[in-house]
Design a protein that fits this description.
Blueprint (H helix, E strand, L loop, with lengths): L3 H10 L1 H13 L8 H14 L3 E4 L3 E7 L7 E7 L26 H17 L7 E7 L8 H6 L8 E12 L3 E2 L3 E4 L2 E9 L14 H12 L1 H5 L7 E10 L9 E10 L2 H21 L3 E10 L2 E3 L1 H15 L4 E2 L11 H5 L4 E9 L18 H19 L2
Helix pairs in contact: 1-11, 2-4, 3-4, 4-11, 6-8, 9-11
Length: about 400
Amino acid sequence: MITQAKIHERISDQEAYITNLRRHFHQHPELSLQEYETIKRIKEELDNLGLPYQSVGETGVLATLEGGKGPGKKLLLRADIDALPMDDLTGQAYTSINAGVNHACGHDGHIAALMGAVHVLKDIQDEIKGTIMVAFQPAEEIGAGARQFVRGGFVNDVDHVFGLHLSSRHALGKIIATPGPSNASCDIFKITVHGKSSHVANPVLGRDALVSAAAIVGELQTIVSRETKPSDEVVLGIGVLRAGTNYNIIANEAFIEGTVRTFDSKVRAHVLEAVERIARLTAQAHRTEVSFSNYDAAAPLINDVDAAQAAYEVAAKIVGAENVIQDEPKSMSADDFADFLAVAPGVYCFVGTQSSQETAFSHHHQQFDIDERGLLHAAELHVSYALNYLSNQ
């Protein structure tokens, strides 16, 4: 039997490997659906382990580890692999060398922690009953990666799923395992405003898409405050507003991009309807027109209650029960791990990586970084949860 002490020892033996791998990926980040070199390196690591795998899409991979004690349940472990379109201002030796691309969400650490866990699981393969599927998934940041695995039928026969995310909001040594709702849904809407150009000195000849877009952005702010209940838990955010080509030209086109986040399907549908309705009517008031589209990036992420309890018990053995958080407030951020949870029950945990000012920057900040000791907790959590689940069948 593999004891927790033995798992801890084996993970500790992987520390240099995990840390160096994380720094490699941090230095060589790639955007969603463009993770060609990232997946190439991942496949090389799997080849070195002698672990069979199949490609999923162009930049995903699903590896299979068959336990030596015969067939049993099938568990999926997942790590996302894409980076963000932003500069890296950490100033570290492993700063991104790809201009304008940065692993500012921690996915580099997700890859490294899971790969370290796979090393340990491979070493003890003969003592495992059942099957462990290992998914390295692209495009989480745009909600397009998990569905490649799900819609492609790659995980149809999976019994259980487990994933985790590093967290700079939580201190090093903390693990979060929340039963029930954890992360909100994510819709990404785009509004193009169509106007008519003219010289600013003769505005009556034009139809100002810039002014119309500004009015739309302002009016959209009334949806949460006036069309939903305070208890509805909904966010409507605008992240992009672009218009105009020169100071003396009435803009003939403007572009708005934003997101809706909620936990309730009816609220979600109503808010999206309101976004389109208000955009069209506001544009009409300014003698302009709009084109509207929406992308369903992620469903609400709802953890299975029993799986969350199992994660709590496993995490308690790693960091102590006093360092495991079960009552974490729901987050309005989204994660397409929800697509895997639609296939099979499971849990999505968070692992603290904050230990200093340098590791306290929020995710999606140019100076985001982690205390790499948290990677060992993440790797050990992967291994321990897998063994606990597969041994209780």
